[in-house]
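Okay, can you check this protein?
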Amino acid sequence: MTHLPPQPISPLDGRYRSAVEGIGDHLSEAGLNRARVHVEVEWLAHLTERSLLGGTPLAAEELAGLRGWAAGFGQPEIDRLAEIEATTQHDVKAVEYLVREQLSRQGLDRIAELTHVCCTSEDINNLSYALTVKDAISEVWRPRLDAVVAELAAQAERYRELPMLSRTHGQPATPTTLGKELAVFVHRLRRQTAQLERIEYLGKFSGATGTFAAHLAADPSVDWQAVSRDFVEGLGLAWNPLTTQIESHDWQAELYARVAHVNRILHNLATDIWSYISIGYFRQIPVAGATGSSTMPHKVNPIRFENAEANLELSNAILDSLAATLVTSRWQRDLTDSSAQRNIGVGLGHSVLALDNILKGLGRIDAAPEVLAEDLDENWEVLAEAIQTVIRAEVAAGRSSISDPYAALKELTRGRRIGRGELAAFVADLDIGDEAKQRLLALTPPRYIGIAPELLAHLGR
């Protein structure tokens, strides 16, 4: 057997790379190292701007040059880091040496010893992860989610008035509208996004065991807590004052649990749409040149929603594991989180891929009003709820002496289908007021939708 050229193991880096490539900009090894370089450079700027530990402010062009280099982190830096780490066998130390090399190139050797000063590797790592995760969520994952919600909201409005037979326990039930059912998912997802907005991205910068011991030893006159807080908040993160060597990762557990919850709502959406397609409520719009089955030419398979289901399950397998494991670290530090966090991008990547498929799937379906209408017309028994409820109201108002209205309708309708004529005859013989009787005789399954269309007004709040 011949050996293939090096191939990606993960489908995210192979078959589906184009759909998830934005995640790699942030949550890859290169993305993490770019963030590490950024944090190291900003710590140097923070120290020198405040003339701490013997540093003096850099000239504007010197600082701009250093920040410009960090912002332009690319393939040359990626390659050089690999060379350095081959010797150091330590990824963060390699970043420190890379920054020192740049300082030398810029003639800034005078501040070289301030590189990584008072830092443990986790001071750099926790801030870098917070920055990369925050950017991945806000710049890649969240826009995809917002696009899905926007499309769902548009379809909910489009089908606001379209009557649809409900199915509870898979059986015919009180009608609704297709728009209202889609609006339920919009409402659920918007609740989660509102809660996502409130999640803090925390950072610590307090040394080897969170005590500022090295800082105080270097200069006991400085308010190092204030320096640390200003630095972390200057990066756009929330400061965590009480930690061990590591930031405790509770915010990550909260975030991944929330993303997983969104995934589960999306999974529910995917299975519902798949089921509606299966019974003909939605038609799929064929894609020119596409093949649904290798042997059955007629088929248009709901593959977008099936792909989404699988990827949402894979995403949650990873995100649930991260949320469960990252909150535990033995005593003041162990390295289990280091290995686990390298899979954040995989977890979010599968969710991004699912969102991409759901959005494409939603764009390739149309409601089939005639199928919905036919289904409603074949299930007049769903009006039994309305009839027995009206009878109860009539009995309570003294306009009827019917005993046990529920039992009467159960005997007429349970486990069998009845048509308009049979139901009309039943209503005509009822001992109820004439106004109530006329109201029931005018009722049809498509009209028995309550205030379903009006409920969409809640989406505008």
Q: What stands out?
A: The first strand starts at residue 163 and ends at 168. The first helix runs from residue 17 to 24. The mean pLDDT is 94. The chain is about 60% helix and 5% strand.
